[in-house]
């Protein structure tokens, strides 16, 4: 691989982007690092770029004027808005799919149609543009189903309905505008059963390299109770996979990338497959067009690769030439949140103890909602504040280290789940 230095602009402000930035900074090729909008942790490693991350022209023009050699896009909104297209149009390498490929996340109907053509197993479904026909359909189903707003809804546009009344209420929410324009088109699908498992993969549009499996914890409270959140904790790899399940997930993801190419769409970047491990094999719940948050915070620390080489290779179609390997270690990450999240919460609380936590073997603390205070102190600035991640040779040790590190960190209102990864240790039927 070339060893020229590359100046990088990374878009995003979460724990995912802090993990991406730290891994990019490890590369001997890392030149100047810029972020937008960034967070308190990212600002310790990079400079702020004065761009609007969702505005294709703003990002592409600034990258061109500042000699950027790689733009890395963390979140979905800039991808769907066409930021990658604009950057590539300037001849600048970009990590993340163009807007047409990002429809795999931007439109659930689009993703379902690609899966149907690819023969990828997923829940059976129908899509609707008016409430009346959708209500008639869920009455006909007369049982559990899942109602999904078609477009981006910040992770909130999915209603898992255990009966017809809940489904009708969900349809009313979607068509009533609760998710904005994302709900003008609604997908109603079969309810799948089984444990969930996510798989991240890098792809250049032809070669697909699976990274690692992981499992998020969406609900706010222990025991998977309380409201949905952006994710309260995660581990990798998923220890309860049966023989053949990983291969099946990789085959499904490859088939989708191949189908898109046959349709004239190059998907390059990270493809995130969300799967239900049903008794008939893995079935797709959703695709995301980017790295998962907080999944990235347990997958990247375990990955042995030069991330700059890998990302540039995704852009220029040479991913097959990049060495990527994995140790047999385990990672567990616990998210520390501000009291009240995912409802309203206070900001600006001083955080202490991050250095002590990071002094522990195998521990890294990724910043999510933090900001740098004028005196250099670290302040809370969001609902999800820190991702306390530990890597170890066993699942149990990684989990113990992550929780011991959480104890060393203090801020007013610090809140977290105490059962991250517990079910995985207890076995498959509990996941
Ligand atoms: P999605 O954003 O499509 O992954 O949906 C969010 C969550 O809703 C998933 O992680 C699942 O827990 C649940 N879900 C989505 N689709 C289905 C389905 N067809 N059957 C059962 N649960 C589902
Ligand atoms: N953790 C789920 C996501 O990134 O969409």
Describe it for me?
- The mean pLDDT is 94.
- The chain has four domains: 92 residues, Rossmann fold (3-Layer(aba) Sandwich), CATH 3.40.50; 55 residues, ATP-grasp fold, A domain (Dna Ligase, domain 1, 2-Layer Sandwich); 134 residues, ATP-grasp fold, B domain (D-amino Acid Aminotransferase, Chain A, domain 1, 2-Layer Sandwich), CATH 3.30.470.20; 101 residues, Phosphoribosylglycinamide synthetase, C-terminal domain (Glycinamide Ribonucleotide Synthetase, Chain A, domain 4, Alpha-Beta Complex), CATH 3.90.600.
- A hairpin with a 2-residue loop joins β15 and β16.
- With 431 residues, it is α+β, with helices and mostly antiparallel strands.
- The radius of gyration is 21 Å and the shape is globular.
- The protein has 14 helices and 25 strands.
- Helices cover 31% and strands 29% of the residues.
- The longest helix is centred in the middle third of the chain and has 18 residues.
- It binds adenosine monophosphate (AMP) and glycine.
Keywords for this structure?
binds adenosine monophosphate, 9-stranded antiparallel beta sheet, Rossmann fold, D-amino Acid Aminotransferase, Chain A, domain 1, binds glycine, alpha+beta, Dna Ligase, domain 1, 29% strand, 25 strands, 431 residues
């Amino acid at each position: 691989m070339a060893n020229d230095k590359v100046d990088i602009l990374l878009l995003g402000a979460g724990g995912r982007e802090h993990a991406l930035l730290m891994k990019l900074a490890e590369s001997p090729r890392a030149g100047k690092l810029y972020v937008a909008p960034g967070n308190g942790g990212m600002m310790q490693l990079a400079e702020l770029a004065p761009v609007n991350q969702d505005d294709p022209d703003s990002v592409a023009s600034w990258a061109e004027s500042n000699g950027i050699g790689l733009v890395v896009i963390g979140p979905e909104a800039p991808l769907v808005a066409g930021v990658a297209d604009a950057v590539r149009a300037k001849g600048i390498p970009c990590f993340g799919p163009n807007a047409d490929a990002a429809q795999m996340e931007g439109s659930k109907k689009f993703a379902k149609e690609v899966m149907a053509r690819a023969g990828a197993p997923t829940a059976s479904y129908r899509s609707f543009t008016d409430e009346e026909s959708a209500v008639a359909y869920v009455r006909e189903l007369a049982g559990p189903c899942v109602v999904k707003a078609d477009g981006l809804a910040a992770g909130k546009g999915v209603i898992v309905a255990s009966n017809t009344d809940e489904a009708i209420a969900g349809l009313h929410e979607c068509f009533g505008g609760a998710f904005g324009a994302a709900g003008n088109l609604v997908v109603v699908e079969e309810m799948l059963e089984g444990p969930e498992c996510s798989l991240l993969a890098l792809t250049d549009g032809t070669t697909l390299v699976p990274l690692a499996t992981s499992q998020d914890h969406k609900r706010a409270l222990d025991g998977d109770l309380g409201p949905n959140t952006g994710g309260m904790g995660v581990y990798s790899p998923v220890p309860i996979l049966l023989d053949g399940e990983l291969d099946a997930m990789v085959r499904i993801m490859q088939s989708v990338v191949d189908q898109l190419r046959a349709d004239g769409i190059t998907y390059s970047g990270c493809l995130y497959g969300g799967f239900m491990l049903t008794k008939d094999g893995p079935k797709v719940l959703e695709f995301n067009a980017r790295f998962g948050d907080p999944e990235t915070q347990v997958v990247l620390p375990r990955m042995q690769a030069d991330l700059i080489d890998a990302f540039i290779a995704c852009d220029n179609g040479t991913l097959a030439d990049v060495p990527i390997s994995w140790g047999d270690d385990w990672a567990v990450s616990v998210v520390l949140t501000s009291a009240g999240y995912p409802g309203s919460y206070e900001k600006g609380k001083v955080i202490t103890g991050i250095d002590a936590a990071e002094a522990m073997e195998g521990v890294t603390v990724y910043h999510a909602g933090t900001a740098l205070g004028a005196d250099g102190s670290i302040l809370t600035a969001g609902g999800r504040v820190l991702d306390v991640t530990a890597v170890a040779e066993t699942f149990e040790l990684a989990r113990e280290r992550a929780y011991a590190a959480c104890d060393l960190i203090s801020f007013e209102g610090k809140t977290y789940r105490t059962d991250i990864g517990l079910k995985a240790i207890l076995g498959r039927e509990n996941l």
